[in-house]
Amino acid sequence: MSAPATSRAANQERKGPPLSAVRMMGLSTAAALLGGQQALADALAIEPRSLRLKLSADRGVTNDDLLFAAAALDARAERLMDHAAKLRAEAGQSKKGEC
What we know:
By secondary structure, the protein is mainly alpha-helical. The chain has helices at residues 7-13, 21-34, 37-44, 48-55, 63-90. The protein has a single domain, classed as 434 Repressor (Amino-terminal Domain) (Orthogonal Bundle), CATH 1.10.260. The protein is built from five helices and no strands.
């Protein structure tokens, strides 16, 4: 009879998305930039609880998770740039840095 698998051994045998600190921190940073975990969870089309499990290494972060987060960041960046351009136009500047 073999000994029960330790959590470390269980993690090594684990199937599914990779557990990576870089991926988890990337999602965490994306959440902060998007305005919170709820906004990122919405972008990933998952429940906030599922996102918390990904951020705490209880679940892996898939390539799709990263790509959806990147798309949400791109969309937010575009909205920010559009708004910045409107503010510049209202101030009488047509280009960034122009006086």
